[in-house]
Amino acid sequence: MKKILKIAAVAAMVLGCSACSQTQEEEISWQDQLIEENTLIVGISPDYPPYESLENGEMVGFDVDMMAELEKYLGVNVEFEQMTFSTIVDAVNLGQVDVGVSGFTYDPERQVLFSDPYLESAQVILTKKDSGIESAADLSGKVVGAQLGTTGADAAAEIEGASVELNQDANILVEALKAGQMDAVVVDLLVAQNYEESDSSLVVLDEPLVDEENGIICSTSNELLMDALNDAIAQFKESDAYEELKTKWGM
Ligand code: ARG
Question: Each residue of 92-116: b (16+ CB within 10 Å) or e?
Answer without folding.
Answer: bbeeebbbbbbbbbebeebebbbbe
